[in-house]
Amino acid sequence: MIVSINQPAYLPWLGYYNRIAISDLHVVLDHVQFEKNSFTNRNKIKSVNGVQWLTVPLKTSGKFGDLSINKIEIANQTKWSGKHIRSIQQNYGKAAHFKDYFKSVTGILHRDWKTLNDLLKIQNEFFLNEMEIYTPILFSTDLNLSKGKSDLILEICKKVSATTYLSGTLGRDYLELEIFEANNIEVIFHDYKHPTYAQLHNDFLPNMSVIDLLFNTGKHSIKIISAKNTIH
Fold first, then answer.
1. Phi/psi at 35 (nearest 5 deg)?
2. DSSP letter at 151?
3. Residue 232 above 60 pLDDT?
4. What DSSP state is assigned to residue 96?
5. Which residue, 27, 161, 176, 223, is most buried by CB atoms nearer than 10 A?
6. 126 burial type by CB count under 10 A (0-12 exposed, 13-18 middle, 19+ buried)
7. CA-only gyration radius of the chain, Å
8. Where in 21-126 does DSSP place strands (E)?
9. How far is CA 195 from CA 15, 66, 124, 160, 208, in A?
10. How far apart are CA 52 and CA 64, in angstroms?
11. In Å, how far are 23, 60, 77, 111, 137 from 82, measured between CA atoms?
12. Burial code of 160-187, b = ≥16 C-beta within 10 A, e = fewer?
């Protein structure tokens, strides 16, 4: 039972989906505190001028320390979704598979979202379905958890009967590997090998949102994401 755990992300990058694809179970860590300048509410697309950030504005004023991801609200008065849609259309309108996905992506962004987590859930379901990634998904808010840091990851692994934990590279900085070993859970680090593929706008840029890949390569996306990245 290979388990991966990750905070939800807005328009995630390729490595996010590869880690899910090569897991037997994925847990979305949505009960922890929101971190400013993280990828939870923002990500990168490629424009004619290089990297462009798309950020979902949030109601954070006076709330830091009490901002769990599953409860944080979107600041919709900024009309952010229209700006994101226009940016996507301007930068990917000429991509080979733009018409295959734009209507659906637009439909998700145009909905009247109150909380960030609800948006991220529906967005993630769409991308997983389009790439035919069928790994079961659980949410940490449903697991009645009480620990923090390395202890939290171990607690989740034990609750879902993991035999292997597939960690992100940053796990090397805080995971207490001896505790996992004592609980017969192997830890593997996901050092994602980023593929190259045909992009618009000059030289190739890695680490873009998954929509960059979908708009440019269509149904071949999951094969590209998983190239040279498997643990089975």
1. -110, 125
2. H
3. no
4. T
5. 27
6. middle
7. 18
8. 25-28, 42-47, 50-55
9. 10, 38, 21, 31, 11
10. 26
11. 35, 21, 12, 11, 29
12. bebebbbbbeebeeebeeeebeeeebeb
Q: Which two tokens stand for residue 100?
A: 């295959």
| Whole-number Å distance between alpha carbons of 127 and 119 | 12
| Tokens matching residue 84 | 């994101």
Look up tokens 């991308």; give the residue: 127
How far, in Å, CA of 207 to CA of 230, rounded?
A: 18
In angstroms, rounded to a whole number, what is the distance separating the alpha carbons of residues 43 and 41?
Answer: 7
Residue type, 203: D
pTM score, two decimals? 0.93
**Which amino acid would we find at residue 24?**
D
pLDDT per residue as tens digits for the range 40-69: 999 999 999 999 999 999 998 766 667 899
Residues in the chain: 232
What is the rounded CA–CA span in Å between residue 126 and residue 128?
A: 6
Coil/strand/helix, residue 94? coil
Q: Is it the case that residue 231 has pLDDT exceeding 90?
A: no
